[in-house]
Amino acid sequence: MFEFNIFAQDFLNISTVIPSTLALALLILLISIALGGVLAFIEQKRVFVLWKVSQLFRSFLRGTPLLVQLYLAFYCLPVVLQKAALLAYLPFNQNDFNPVYTVIVAYSVHFAVFQSEIIRGSFLSVGYGQIEAAQASGFSFFQTMRRIIIPQAIIEALPNFFNSYLSVIKSLSLAFLVGVVDILAKAKLESALNFRYLESYAAAATAYWLLCSIMTYILGIYEKLIRKRA
Amino acid sequence: MLALKNIRKSFNGTDVLKGISLKVNEGDVVTLIGPSGTGKTTLLRCVNFLEKPDEGEVQFSNFQLNYSHAKKKEILRLRRKSAMVFQQYHLFKNKTAIENVMEAQIVVQKKTKKEAYENSLELLNKVGLVEKKDYYPSQLSGGQQQRISIARALAIKPEILLFDEPTSALDPELVGEVLNVIDQIARTGATILLVTHEMSFAQSISTKVVFMDHGEIVEEGPPSQIFNHSNRLRTKEFLKHFTNNYQKTTSL
């Protein structure tokens, strides 16, 4: 039956990869927000041609599973980089390529599409009236952005970014398929040693759950602070 | 002071302004009245370029500008010498009342925080809202928000104040407090261009009333002429319905 000792041991072992999982997810989140910002700008301003390209890109990323994108990246990225390196006479061996980079690229691009929607929505939520009020007072475009729009848009976007952080953490459980060890991967490795699958998966579930609960709690405090103003 | 010449504007093929020319002298309070959809607000928004006129010229304070090929710098210059009060107030929601008043002084006029703060306190006092200085817009009533937005407009010491139906979004109880503030400002000799549906207020405050219909000026003149001795059928017809609902009170 369920051996609590093994569960506890598994949980401790899994905890060792939590910091690296969180850091990897944070890196992916930040890159995806930056990419998402670019996408949002392109789509909002309808930048010539790029706008159409980004729509195609968006439709593909939305229409295929993350796992498929991860596999595509896993088999494409090293080869593409190898070719690029050859052209630029740079030393590069695709066999030494760490799959963690593949994960960062694939996930950042995948989540960028969602971030761009969050960013667009949060900018639109500020409302045109305040922008006009700033313009009428003689604010330049950048002054309006910096002083009025961005501070409000960030407040609006933060909870959503937070939610996507949780999504990234949970989605990283797929990364083991290309060899990157996160929480779930660690659980699999643990159970492979003693064949106690239930305990190790229970431990992984507990770790995810705890993490997400703590973060949701922090988000709750943040939202309370914000609501005082609004 | 402000002279608009032949302003034209159309939206999707509909002519909203059909070549309007209008003069506002220093210290004048000019009121634009007329039925809804006539282009009064559009004309006001054309003055500071929130709406880009298709053609027309403006002469304002000491410079001239052709709307059809105005440069960014010129637009900014024009906007920095004028201020606008909106129907929906449009206060900066992430800033407190006093920060709203300080903002343009700091960002645009590069005043120090201290200077802007003291100046803003004085203005809040003028609109009777010093005790609300640390409130966010969402914590204030519509009338209070509009008074803050008037203080914000005054803060940049504009050469002309543009009011876009400042009381249309307020319930009748709150209209009075805002009109009183505007009346008070007008008495200080400020130059004002005002769009309003408050006819008796327009009658009492204006030095000149402009009646617009279908994108054109039908008639302009001193309030006594427009309201009592108009010889235009359209003006008479429009003013037939107005009721006397503005009473001046001395206290805010």
UniProtKB/TrEMBL annotation, chain A:
Topology in the lipid bilayer: Multi-pass membrane protein
Superkingdom of this protein's organism: Bacteria
Keyword Transmembrane: yes
Keywords from the named record: Amino-acid transport, Membrane, Transmembrane, Transmembrane helix, Transport
Sequence ranges assigned to domain ABC transmembrane type-1 in this UniProt record: 18-219
The keyword rRNA-binding appears for this protein: no
Classification via Pfam families: BPD_transp_1 (PF00528)
Record's subcellular location: Cell membrane; Membrane
UniProt xrefs under SUPFAM superfamilies: MetI-like
Chief subcellular location: membrane
Transmembrane regions: 20-42, 63-85, 97-114, 162-181, 201-222
Family stated for the protein in its record: Belongs to the binding-protein-dependent transport system permease family.
Protein name as catalogued: Amino acid ABC transporter permease
Naturally occurring in which organism (per UniProt): Sporolactobacillus shoreicorticis
From TrEMBL, chain B:
Compartment annotation: Cell membrane
Membrane topology label: Peripheral membrane protein
Pfam families referenced in this protein's UniProt entry, alphabetically: ABC_tran (PF00005)
Domain ABC transporter, chain residue ranges per copy: 2-239
Domain of life: Bacteria
InterPro entries membership: AAA+_ATPase, ABC_ATPase_HisP-typ, ABC_transporter-like_ATP-bd, ABC_transporter-like_CS, MetN_ABC_transporter-like, P-loop_NTPase
Keyword Ubl conjugation found: no
Keywords for this protein: ATP-binding, Cell membrane, Membrane, Nucleotide-binding, Transport
Example of a GO MF term: ATP binding
UniProt name for this protein: Amino acid ABC transporter ATP-binding protein
Species this protein is from: Sporolactobacillus shoreicorticis
